[in-house]
Amino acid sequence: MTRKLPIIAVATAPGKAGVGVVRISGSDLKPITKALFHKVLLPRQANLLTLRDGSGESIDQLIAIYFSAPASFTGEDVLELQCHGGPQLLELVMKRCLELGKEQGLVIAEPGEFTLRAYLNDKIDLAQAEAIADLIDAQSEAAVRGAARSLQGAFSSDINSLIEEITQLRILVESTLDFPEEEIEFLENAHARDRLAAVMQKLQSLREGAKQGKILRDGIQLVLAGAPNVGKSSLLNRLAGEEVAIVTPIAGTTRDRVKESISIEGVPMHIIDTAGLRETTDLVEAKGIERSWDAIRSADLVIFLRDAASSNSLEGSTSVELRNQILDALPPKCPVLEVCNKSDLLDVTQASQEGKTLFISAKTGAGLPSLKREILGAVGWGGAQEGAIIARRRHIDCLNRAAEHLEKSEQFAKDGNISLELFAEELRLAQDHLGQITGKLLPDDLLGKIFSQFCIGK
Ligand SMILES: Nc1nc2c(ncn2[C@@H]2O[C@H](COP(=O)(O)OP(=O)(O)OP(=O)(O)O)[C@@H](O)[C@H]2O)c(=O)[nH]1
Ligand SMILES: [Mg+2]
Asked: Cα of 68 to ligand 2 centre, how many Å?
């Protein structure tokens, strides 16, 4: 994973474009640059140059910019070639660079290797490196802003200041360890418990922020489930604003899962319309229904849709049985919204009698704004606050583990159960887990895993 050889890759997206960028990074790129253009380039200047093949024929006229180590993205020498953005042309440029860089050991970069080098050379920490990938993958404007904040170090600096506070507390505790008889007195004089409580509170607010950040990054898998013909596909089409799924009055229209991604208040929603759930002897429909259950089993949120106008739909035995089956299949903590569709077929008094059940009409759009609010509420979205950051499952796991250790350390500071040694040890463990977020104390295999998920050229 940690090669020293110079690396090269196309940094722009595959396909045709006005400009395509080829990027080279290595500890000394002067020889390669000289071989390519027969001159040494001054750093940070745009040079209009011609790249030629072995027979002296022009491949492309391009802009080359040289960044000298350590003032570059990777912290090494970087050469950026802004070529014309044709896939075949970029292939030729790559081929020529690899030919002329062979002597220096120039090789094609692994996915994420430029960012990995930036991380290894301390240009960015791990949370910032992840934010680069998240910025590129961002699925909504709010996600872009969150990733940009994380990249600028907002998340890392919160983590670092928490680590610093725990360090201060540890220094205090560890310096007292040799005088056990003074333990109680020490805890009181040093306000150790209050300081720990303050750290725990800060961590709690970071955990809440990270939970929101993960929603921004990954979005929500929202599954539309229910009996046939209740209007699941119509609801998908209404939410998507286009005819994504086929709608007919025939029960059992949808056979396969239909997916569409939309954004509600900046939160990416991956909506999955499923085959209506019922007993069937039709082989194709049965396979479709099995897929519906698979979707329910991996959902973040399920909308259990019913037909408000059908006589046995609301509290009828089929509906109750189906609801129980869905509740049994859900992943732990996955919320369910029960929604009645086709409210346009009810008269007004009927609908208002149903109390808290949400009534909508996929046909007219009635009730859709409330449904969207309920969806965001059910997944715990608190709105895109100022200063929101982007976060991953990995960060949340580290924060949760840190919180567990702080809770344990709190136990060891309780009257009747005081052990400064264990108190300090739990603080250390909490600190280690926080350190993993920014990459301090990270197990090696994890580093490889994180960067291998990046695209080539990043
Ligand atoms: N009046 C009225 N009809 C609706 C509404 N939503 C859907 N329908 C009608 O109900 C029928 C079934 O709609 P679909 O969206 O195909 O229902 P589904 O739940 O996807 O059905 P399956 O795919 O068979 O499971 C169609 O004729 C729709 O036009 C609504 O809000 N009001
Ligand atoms: Mg359908």
From this structure: 59
